[in-house]
Amino acid sequence: MNVLLTGGAGYIGSHTAVTLINAGINIVIADNFSNSSPKVLDRIAEITGKRPEFVEVDFCDKAATDALFESHSFDGVIHFAGLKAVGESCRQPIRYYRNNLDSTLTLLEAMAKYNVKRLVFSSSATVYGDQPAPLTESTPTGNCSNPYGWTKYMIEQILKGACDADPELSVVLLRYFNPLGAHESGKIGENPNGIPNNLMPYISQVAVGKLEKLHIFGNDYDTPDGTGVRDYIHVVDLAQGHLDALHYAEKRTGCDVFNLGTGKGYSVLDMVKTFSRVNGVEVPYVIDPRRPGDLATVYADPKKAETVLGWTAKRNLEDMCRDSWNWQSHNPQGY
Question: Which helix or strand (DSSP H or E) is residue 43 part of?
């Protein structure tokens, strides 16, 4: 099987690339390095013993996207490419709508033109908005609290419409909860540009001395300790979910959706304390006001993925903290 990974040099894409290569799948990584490093390709090769083919592409560029599909034969696509920071999306909504929607529409047009019928889409739990947890796949969507979430919601609607129009198309929507951790080798991990938007790289960069202190946004939520509660999932477990979804898409048509999470919620302070305990490092922090677009409590009901895909998250919070620190401590400046 030949599979295209759009945005495959990013955090989740690179870990999925390793999982697919180790499963014997031929991959092509396409990325524009807007939030990733070319060095990740070397690291994937070190881990797997096989350097993935790479093509530099911005999927908002129709000519470049067509050229990629013209020169390759793909059996399926895993679509990671897109801007992904909640806070930034509130500050730059037009940029987020333009990039995330344009890139997906251009990709779908190329898939239709070159008769590629399988797609796994990197969606998000943000499509649920502010709904009571645990969240199931049947929980209503479309009550998003930020532009990033709205882009994921809109793309889901586009993909459902594409499946309605083309009975041969197979699409799997994967609604991630909060990915963290790193490959156990410590060779690849989360490497954001500038000050991290996600919690774990923020914690680990404070722990390694790259940043002075962690800013916790809000301690007045209706949660056990006042800080936001999230469902954190190890990125390697998440990568396995993409492989399972790809195999599922081979056997069916139409559009289906799965939550990928652990079904457990942990607060920001839970994360800080676990990280410090597991790794023996202190993480100084301060409490700041809430960020726009953030919610109090979000965690999954992942039973459908277990029942249909045979997928479950195998790694726990201690594994996530240990692997995150292994990556950061061996790569204090990232790639």
Answer: helix 39-48
The confidence score (pLDDT) of residue 270 equals 96
In the three-class reduction of DSSP (H, G, I as helix; E, B as strand; rest coil), residue 135 is classed as strand
Three-state SS for 78? strand
The pLDDT-based confidence of 273 (bands split at 50, 70, 90) is: very high
Please give the CATH superfamily to which domain 2-182+232-261 belongs: NAD(P)-binding Rossmann-like Domain (3.40.50.720)
Catalytic-labelled residue, pool 128, 148, 232, 299: 148
For the chain, what are the domain ranges? 2-182+232-261
Among 179, 293, 316, which residue's Cα sits nearest to residue 239? 179
Length of the chain: 335
Structure pTM? 0.96
> How far is CA 81 from its chain centroid?
10
Instruction: Mark whether 148 is an active-site residue.
Output: yes
Give per-residue pLDDT as tens, 92-115. 999 999 999 999 999 999 999 999
Return the residue matching tokens 């006001």.
289
- C-alpha of 284 from chain center: 27
User: Which amino acid appears at position 127 of this protein?
Assistant: V
